[in-house]
Amino acid sequence: MCKEIFRLQAHALGLFFDEMVNTFDPDALIVGGGALEASEEFQKWFMDEIRVGMPNQREEQAGIPIYVIPNGDTAGARGAAIEALKLARQSGLM
């Protein structure tokens, strides 16, 4: 049952990515979160399921890479902290 839940999540993410690809034409897509801190086998399976959930793309979009971002659940917070530090340094606060 757990694997089926993750499969549904992956397919929903694939549909979301399809919208993002058609709207923004990105060079890559990034997936993160604690669930992907699992084994490499699970990561590969999940990433493959995302692709299965994506409708067929135009030829130039079909090979867009999808990466797993490191740091799991803390990736967003770490990125925000890095940007805040940059801003503080640029503003002379540090």
Characterization of the model:
It is built from 4 helices and 2 strands, in the order αβααβα. With 94 residues, it is mainly alpha-helical. The chain has one domain.
| Uncertain stretches of 5 or more adjacent residues | none
Number of strands: 2
Number of helices: 4
Number of domains: 1
Measured distance between first and last alpha carbons: 51 Å
The assigned structural class equals mainly alpha
Described by strand count, sense and barrel closure, the largest sheet is: 2 strands, parallel
Percentage of β-strand residues: 5-15%
Taken in chain order, the helices and strands follow as HEHHEH
Helix fraction, binned, reads: 55-70%
Mean pLDDT: 87
* Sheet with most strands: strand arrangement: 1-2
Q: Radius of gyration in whole Å, from Cα?
A: 16 Å
Task: Offer a quick outline of the entry.
The protein contains 4 helices and 2 strands, in the order αβααβα. The protein has helices at residues 2-24, 40-53, 59-62, 75-90, and strands spanning 29-31, 66-68.
Task: Record the SSE blueprint.
Elements: H1 2-24, E1 29-31, H2 40-53, H3 59-62, E2 66-68, H4 75-90
Parallel strand pairs: 1-2
Helix pairs in contact: 1-2
Attribute tags:
mainly alpha; 2 strands; 94 residues
